[in-house]
């Protein structure tokens, strides 16, 4: 009998109704996208339903002990090419190749709590990943799914909604897992509607996107302080006053009271002024 390994953050989802809800949450409006990438298949319960739904599935599993179990369970699907299993850390694959697949795909995953944020951020940058249906700790899911004006709104909410939309779909009780975690989980869905990088993207390249992330880090460094105060540690106050005046922004605005579109406008204004100065 396989026991969940704490160092891999394993909590095996075994509730049939939740598995069904996850399958139903996968976007099906694009009939050309039939490729699913799954992170952490565990014992294969979600994998079974993905394959049964006629998706072509590539699963990344870091736990070598689970590989023979999964290959035995889905032997026929592996032989006919519908199922591919990769014994590798998905984050390492992103680091080495920038993508988990060489074709457009939908990411479906029950993510380990300790690496969920990093994995979702990597998926957002993955140009081949068009949608994300992921389960993680509710607190993390709420940060990604938050909107401007909500207390939970943070840099994660900005990044998740930059190229599309992010929605918290439903909660999952601890009792649905084995072993039982100490926190409530949530399933979120992110749909990308615009390219992030490149000629048709929001940013020209990864370097420009990294600068925007650094800008957001400064914006939210002290959530209870004003956005102006936070940014003044990175931008000259006089230049910042001009930007705020041009965009008609109240200097008492707090970071969570802004929105995605406004953050992009502030960033572009500051960038333009910096380039003009050079």
TrEMBL record:
<feature type="domain" description="Ribosomal RNA adenine methylase transferase N-terminal">
    <location>
        <begin position="18"/>
        <end position="194"/>
    </location>
</feature>
<dbReference type="GO" id="GO:0005829">
    <property type="term" value="C:cytosol"/>
</dbReference>
<feature type="binding site">
    <location>
        <position position="110"/>
    </location>
    <ligand>
        <name>S-adenosyl-L-methionine</name>
    </ligand>
</feature>
<keyword id="KW-0949">S-adenosyl-L-methionine</keyword>
<protein>
    <recommendedName>
        <fullName>Ribosomal RNA small subunit methyltransferase A</fullName>
        <ecNumber>2.1.1.182</ecNumber>
    </recommendedName>
</protein>
<feature type="binding site">
    <location>
        <position position="61"/>
    </location>
    <ligand>
        <name>S-adenosyl-L-methionine</name>
    </ligand>
</feature>
<keyword id="KW-0489">Methyltransferase</keyword>
<dbReference type="InterPro" id="IPR020596">
    <property type="entry name" value="rRNA_Ade_Mease_Trfase_CS"/>
</dbReference>
<comment type="similarity">
    <text>Belongs to the class I-like SAM-binding methyltransferase superfamily. rRNA adenine N(6)-methyltransferase family. RsmA subfamily.</text>
</comment>
<dbReference type="InterPro" id="IPR020598">
    <property type="entry name" value="rRNA_Ade_methylase_Trfase_N"/>
</dbReference>
<keyword id="KW-0698">rRNA processing</keyword>
<feature type="binding site">
    <location>
        <position position="89"/>
    </location>
    <ligand>
        <name>S-adenosyl-L-methionine</name>
    </ligand>
</feature>
<dbReference type="InterPro" id="IPR029063">
    <property type="entry name" value="SAM-dependent_MTases_sf"/>
</dbReference>
<feature type="binding site">
    <location>
        <position position="40"/>
    </location>
    <ligand>
        <name>S-adenosyl-L-methionine</name>
    </ligand>
</feature>
<dbReference type="InterPro" id="IPR011530">
    <property type="entry name" value="rRNA_adenine_dimethylase"/>
</dbReference>
<dbReference type="InterPro" id="IPR001737">
    <property type="entry name" value="KsgA/Erm"/>
</dbReference>
<dbReference type="GO" id="GO:0052908">
    <property type="term" value="F:16S rRNA (adenine(1518)-N(6)/adenine(1519)-N(6))-dimethyltransferase activity"/>
</dbReference>
<dbReference type="InterPro" id="IPR023165">
    <property type="entry name" value="rRNA_Ade_diMease-like_C"/>
</dbReference>
<feature type="binding site">
    <location>
        <position position="11"/>
    </location>
    <ligand>
        <name>S-adenosyl-L-methionine</name>
    </ligand>
</feature>
<keyword id="KW-0963">Cytoplasm</keyword>
<dbReference type="GO" id="GO:0003723">
    <property type="term" value="F:RNA binding"/>
</dbReference>
<keyword id="KW-0808">Transferase</keyword>
<keyword id="KW-0694">RNA-binding</keyword>
<feature type="binding site">
    <location>
        <position position="13"/>
    </location>
    <ligand>
        <name>S-adenosyl-L-methionine</name>
    </ligand>
</feature>
<comment type="function">
    <text>Specifically dimethylates two adjacent adenosines (A1518 and A1519) in the loop of a conserved hairpin near the 3'-end of 16S rRNA in the 30S particle. May play a critical role in biogenesis of 30S subunits.</text>
</comment>
<dbReference type="Pfam" id="PF00398">
    <property type="entry name" value="RrnaAD"/>
</dbReference>
């Amino acid at each position: 009998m396989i026991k969940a390994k704490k160092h891999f953050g394993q909590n095996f989802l075994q509730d049939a109704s939740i598995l069904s809800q996850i399958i139903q949450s996968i976007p099906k409006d694009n009939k050309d996208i039939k490729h699913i990438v799954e992170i952490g298949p565990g014992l294969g319960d979600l994998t079974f339903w993905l394959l049964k739904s006629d998706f072509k599935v590539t699963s990344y599993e870091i736990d070598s002990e689970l590989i023979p179990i999964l290959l035995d369970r889905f032997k026929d699907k592996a032989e006919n090419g519908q199922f591919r299993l990769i014994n590798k850390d998905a984050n390492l694959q992103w680091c080495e190749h920038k993508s988990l697949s060489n074709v457009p795909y939908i990411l479906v995953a029950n993510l380990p709590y300790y690496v969920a944020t990093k994995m979702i951020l990597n998926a957002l940058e993955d140009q081949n990943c068009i949608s994300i249906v992921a389960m993680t700790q509710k607190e993390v899911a709420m940060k990604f799914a938050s909107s401007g004006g909500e207390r939970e709104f943070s840099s994660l909410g900005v990044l998740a909604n930059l190229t599309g939309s992010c929605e918290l779909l439903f909660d999952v009780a601890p009792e649905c897992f084995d072993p039982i975690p100490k926190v409530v989980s949530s399933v979120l869905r992110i749909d990308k509607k615009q390219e992030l990088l490149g000629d048709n993207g929001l940013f020209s390249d990864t370097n420009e996107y990294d600068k925007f992330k650094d800008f957001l880090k400064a914006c939210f460094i002290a959530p209870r302080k004003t956005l102006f105060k936070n940014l003044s540690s990175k931008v000259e106050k006089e230049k910042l006053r001009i930007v705020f005046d041009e965009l008609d922004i109240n200097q008492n605005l707090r970071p969570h009271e802004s929105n995605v579109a406004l953050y992009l406008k502030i960033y572009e204004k500051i960038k333009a002024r910096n380039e003009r100065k050079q």
